[in-house]
Amino acid sequence: MNELHRQAYLDAMGVASYFPRAVLPGALASPICLLPVAEPATTSVEPAANNENQAATAAASAAKNVMASMGLIDPAAVKKVTKPPVATTASQASEPAAESRAVPQFTLVVVVASRFLLIAEAINGQKAQDYQHMLANILLALGDTAPPQYLPFSWPMINSSAVDQSAAVARSALNAFLKEHTPKRNAIIFGSAAQHLNLADTQVGVLQSLEPLACNGLITACAAKAYAQPQLKRELWQHIAPLRLAE
Q1: Domain of life of the organism in this record (predicted)?
Q2: Cα 105 from chain centroid?
Q3: How far apart are CA 126 and CA 96, in angstroms?
Q4: What is the 3-state secondary structure of the chain?
């Protein structure tokens, strides 16, 4: 069988040389090893539209889980999502989980008087009593002479990872706590305390309706800073002086 007949026979049988045939001078060309021709591998590529649908399903499922943990929807509604979420790497999955578990830590002092409710950052240690005395003097300067009551509010309330203690839950708990004392009182919110009430973007130094607290209130400078730096008390007083009760 000459070379042409050999090649035709191999083509008919569906086989080919594993290595290229080498022709040596003075020798007949012959294959070293014959192997079946491998069929081209076929892979199924999932359309891009399916990937987008899976991503949307995963986002909807995550949103429902968060809302269910806050008691905003029935937990049974979470089970209605039947499509599996898009697979993610371990590092990608841990980032949003860590963010959702972030627990804010803060302590406020709430001063309840006859006509006013002061919400300020707390100061710990030996200076705490002097700081509370400064807040009491603010009430006296505003004309509220009733003996004030000092109520601390600390977050987190309990040290347990099994309880949702996120910023949204902290804000809801603080609002509920303050609403017990806001009726018939004007609230004065100092410094960063406004952030914990989600009122950081509210206009400063203006008495206005504060819907989250169901009362009228005013946001002013940080009382803790005014205590540490007396020169800041002038700005603070300029904000709250118009609230002074008429004698």
Answers
A1: Bacteria
A2: 14
A3: 40
A4: CCHHHHHHHHHHHCEEECCCCCCCCCCCCCCCCEEECCCCCCCCCCCHHHHHHHHHHHHHHHHHHHHHHCCCCCHHHHHHCCCCCCCCCHHHHHHHHHHHCCCCCEEEEEEECCCEEEEEECCCHHHHHHHHHHHHHHHHHCCCCCCCEEEEEEECCCCCCCCCCCHHHHHHHHHHHHHCCCCCCEEEEECCHHHHCCCCCCCCCCCEEEHHHCEEEEEECCHHHHHHCHHHHHHHHHHHHHHCCCC
Tell me what the pLDDT averaged over the chain comes to: 74
What global pTM score does this model have? 0.60
**Which tokens go with 247?**
């004698």
CB 109 within 8 A of CB 152: yes
Q: How many CA atoms lie within 13 A of 127 on its CB side?
A: 10
Predicted local distance difference test score (pLDDT) of residue 51:
54
